[in-house]
Every structure is written in structure tokens, then in C-alpha cells.
Amino acid sequence: MSNASQNPKVGFVSLGCPKALVDSEQIITQLRAEGYETAKSYDGADLVIVNTCGFIDAAVQESLDAIGEALHENGKVIVTGCLGKKKDAAGNDLIQSVHPKVLAVTGPQALADVMSAVHTHLPKPHDPFQDLVPPQGVKLTPKHFAYLKISEGCNHRCSFCIIPSMRGDLVSRPIADVMLEAENLFKAGVKELLVISQDTSAYGVDVKFRTGFWNGKPVKTHMTQLTTALGELAAQYGAWVRLHYVYPYPHVDEVIPLMAEGKVLPYLDVPLQHAHPDVLKRMKRPASGEKNIERIQAWRKMCPDLTIRSTFIAGFPGETEEEFQYLLDFLKEAEIDRLGCFAYSPVEGATANELANPVPQELREERRARVMELQEGISKKRMQAKVGKTIRVLLDEVTPSGGVGRTAADAPEIDGVVHVKPPFEPHRKLKVGEFVDVTITAADTHDLWGEA
Ligand code: SF4
Question: Which residue did the predictor score with more confidence, 288 or 155?
């Protein structure tokens, strides 16, 4: 039955309506694209996929019979399609209770889930002569970290931003696709996954937090459930997950305990842009009514190791000296760990350019410099507090004199680095993409120095 000398063969039974047929076509296309072959008979297949129908009783019975036959004739069966969602009288999954030996069950339109089950139960060795792209896709980042884009576009209309006019409203990727990409990246050796979007907290809003399937289990298209699932997956591979562009909606509070438990990195990139409520109103920022100081304090209480990164705009149109001072007072109190501040830049097409009382360029720059000066002191103090601690570092670079890496508090490209002296053991060489525990011996405003 096995085809050891050839590509793996998958048998396919397609039942149901034209929508199910399209699902079958997509699965078969993907199988072929990945180099799997289709088998014409049960005994010529290494695995069988049954796409089921659950519309009327007769169709249910036909599907259950087809699964039974495939199990009897072949033994390795993955089930997809409408019947995958049906429950029996006791509320259990119908297919699992009738045919407990099936390897995986998904609902309809679950290409990524089906492919993930195929990869698990019938992995295909990567063939460099046949496969044009590696399973994790082509990545522009170094091999040990990768960006995972979970959505495109944005439903907000911040007055300084033209992204929605270029990229349109929010479109969230199906959760199973996101998880499959994450799994492929981890399998390919990625040690740090950086979750990105325009607005990570809004993930799933456009699809009303639709339930998808991952590993045969229902998962909602929602930031909290995605973060939980990614954290669990990353733990299997000993990898990090870092969240970017998280707007401070109330449900962000649910993610902080996951950070405290070490499921995802205790790192929150929240672009606040300003602190004064009137400026935030003119900016038309999402979640601007939240009490951000109280939120930050509560998050730090829940997760004392939390690193907060944020960006701010100085000299937004109409910003008075009093509003600017309010921002400085906020920053003094909030003690943001990693902060970027930009002087307002009138991007062409941004509605903020039409607001009254624009701040002259020179003053915008001056205010930016004042923010950065204040932040320098805060940053220095927070970095100094790390001296003497032993912190886990992911190495990005190995040099003759040691290595350069990052802690949980440092995202690549935008935050600081740790300069690592090599370990004491003479034969032990540092490697790029390796985690090392580093005792911190010195710090400046952005970077750390330590010994592995
Ligand atoms: S700045 Fe505002 S409008 Fe622009 S992408 Fe972010 S949330 Fe959306």
C-alpha cells in the first residue's frame, strides 16, 4: 500500500453539493501543488480524504457509509465537509462517535485545516528539485524570525493616516490559514514569530469572529483565541510569539495573563499616538476614551515583566502647549519602556491637514525633541534595572568577539540589542537563532551588555 519510491498518494471521495465540490477542487489543487499524487483506488492510496454532505438524512447516511468504507479499505481517513460540523443526539461530534478511528475531522471550507491534517499524517519530504518554494514560503527575514500577517486593511479613519484609503477596510485572514502558516514557519526553524497587521486587536471583527478549525478543534477568529493558539503552538517548538500593533481595546486585558504565564512574550506594542483626550479626538483614534494610565498600571500589576512599546506624534494640528504638556506628564507617569516619537508629518491626502491651527514645523520638531529627552531618562532608568539579572536572549548575529541578540523586551529592527560575550567553555560556540541565558553586566539608554 505504501508508495515509498514515489510521491505520497491521496485518495479522494467527494460527496455533496457544488459548494462541496469547489472545496474538493481546492483541496486537490493544493495537494497537487505540494507534490502529492491522487490515487484512483483505496488500496493505491496512502491516505483517503472524504468530503461529506450533511444536508438531509440520506446524505448523512451516504457520507457515514463512505467513511466506513474508506476506513475498512484503507484505514487512514481524514474527513472534511458539512457533516464535520454535525452533532449526535448526545451533543458529541457525529463522525467521531460513529467512526472514532478517523484521523481528523474538519467542517466545510477548511482547506488549511485539511492540509494541516495531511501534513501531520502523511508528510511529504521537501524535494528541492520539484518544490519551487519551501513549505514556509519565501521569507525576507533571517531564518530564525518571521512576520506573520493576520489581516490587511483597517476599519478606522485616523485623521493623520491614509492606509485605509490605500488598502481598504479590515480583511482578516482565516484563523486556520494563519495557524498553518505559523506551523510551517516553526517547522522551518523560526524561533520568533512577530504578529503584525494594521490593528491586531480588531482581528476577526470583519467576519464577526467566525469560528474556524485548527487541529480539529474550533477556534474563533479573535485576537485572544489566536494568541492562545499561537502560544500553545510556539511552546511545542520552543519559540517566541510577539504581538505588534495592539490597540488598547478592553479585550487586550485578556491577553496580559497569557503574557504573565509565558505563553507569548510579555511585550505589548500599543501605538497610543497621544494622551490628551481632545488631541485623540481630533486624531479620530480607536479606543481613545480608555483610561490609558490606569490600564498600563493594571497590566504591569498582572504581568510585572511587561515591556510596553508605543509611538507618539508631537505637534499634531491644533496641539496647544497645554495639550503637549499633558502628553509629557502622561509619559512621566506611564514610563513606557520603548518609545518612538515623530513630529507630525502632513501626509498628502490625510484629513488632519485640514484641521485648524497647524503647528509650525520648527515647533513640531522641538516638541519631538522634548519628548525624546524626557524618554531618555526613563529609558535609562528602566534599562539600568536589568543589570545583574539573567535574561534569555535570542541571538541574531555571531561575531568573533561574541554575539548580538535580543531579549523579550526587544523587537527586531526597532528596539535595542544585547551584546553577548561568548560563554566561558572554550569549545562552546554561539549560533545564530539560538537562545542563551545572559547575565547583564551593563546598560545604556537602549542596549545591554552581558555574558552568556
Ligand atoms: S493609524 Fe488608524 S487608520 Fe491608520 S491603520 Fe492605524 S488604526 Fe487604521
Answer: 155
192: which residues sit within 8 A by CB, 6+ positions away?
Answer: 144, 145, 146, 239, 240, 241, 242, 394, 412
Mean pLDDT of 375-398: 95
- Laid out side by side, the sheet with 338-343 consists of 145-149, 192-196, 240-243, 267-269, 307-314, 338-343
Residues 191-239: pLDDT tens digits? 999 999 989 999 999 999 999 988 888 999 999 999 999 999 999 999 9
Among 303, 295, 379, 283, residue whose Cα is nearest residue 338: 379
The alpha carbon of 214 and the centre of ligand 1 are apart by a number of angstroms equal to 29
Strands 37-39 and 47-52: unpaired
Distance, CA 11 to ligand 1 centroid (Å)? 46
Q: Are 199 and 154 in contact (CB under 8 A)?
A: yes
Q: Which is the closest atom of ligand 1 to the Cα of 155?
A: 8
Q: Which atom of ligand 1 lies at the shortest distance from residue 285's CA?
A: 2
Is the CB of residue 283 less than 8 Å from the CB of residue 342?
Answer: no
Distance in Å, CA 158 to ligand 1 centroid: 5
Q: Is the CB of 54 under 6 A from ligand 1?
A: no
Highest mean pLDDT (candidates 25-29, 80-84, 89-93, 254-258): 254-258
C-alpha 344 – ligand 1 centre gap (Å): 15
Regarding the beta carbon of 201 and ligand 1, being less than 6 Å apart is answered no
pLDDT in tens, 357-367: 999 999 999 99
Backbone angles phi, psi at 337, to 5 degrees: -75, -50
Q: How far is the CA of 148 from the centre of ligand 1 (A)?
A: 18
**Residue with more model confidence, 399 or 127:** 399
The amino acid at 388 = G
Atom 7 (ligand 1) nearest CA: 156
- In ligand 1, the atom with minimum distance to the C-alpha of 286 is 7
